[in-house]
Amino acid sequence: MTQSKKVLIVVTNTEEFEKVGYRTGLWLSELTHFWDVLEKAGLSMDIASPAGGYVPIDPESLLMPELIQMTGLKDAVNKRYEDRAFMDQLKNTRSVADVDVDQYDAIYLTGGHGVMFDFANNEPLGQLIAEFYENNKIVSAVCHGPCGLLNVKLSNGNYLIKDKKLTGFSWREEQLAKRDHAVPFSLQDELTQRGAYYEKALIPFTENVVEDGLLITGQNPKSAHAVGQAVLSRLDS
């Protein structure tokens, strides 16, 4: 039964772009939309971060920019933001280094530009993701969350994402978001350079979820709800 399942959610600790000083952090809807789906199904969830402790929120994710507002889920995000008990979970998260894989059935990597700076090269996070995958547990991510998959290697020495179908925030979306000059790399390019088969929606900022075995990825903020549904469906199978 899915009610007995438990999911680990990983969020960023980074609150500024390293070079240009823009504020960043967790894109809140990528947490709340996923959370809403699993909570409704009765699953339990824990939140962790690379360093543990405080999790900053990207201020633009609270403004609901026009491109994201088309999701029609503004009220759901605001409700969570105003829920003190929910938001208090982001004040003192556990470190990924302290997570016991055996306690969970799936892992979900949220996005926000902050993860570009503290997911890709975080060794404990990479080891944790590899453990999930090699123990036949679901590995999921949305938007910039696949940054956490970039350098994950399995026990055979191969990248986890090699020869896998997946998605993530596209370079065109980066350009439209006017962050192409500020990001440290193109997520789309880095994924393909490691042998992944990258797939994107025809229209930027529209829902797109790609599944390949235990790997479930969503392209952008609008895809978070659907990633949650895909994870739930897989856990229920």
Automatic annotation (TrEMBL):
GO CC field: cytoplasm
Gene Ontology terms, MF aspect: glyoxalase III activity; transferase activity
Stored Pfam families: DJ-1_PfpI
UniProt domain DJ-1/PfpI: residue ranges: 29-232
GO biological process, one term: methylglyoxal catabolic process to D-lactate via S-lactoyl-glutathione
Keyword Acetylation applies: no
Top-rank taxon: Bacteria
Keyword entries, A-Z: Glutamine amidotransferase, Lyase, Stress response, Transferase
Protein family membership: Belongs to the peptidase C56 family. HSP31-like subfamily.
Protein name: Type 1 glutamine amidotransferase domain-containing protein
Native source organism of the sequence: Alkanindiges illinoisensis
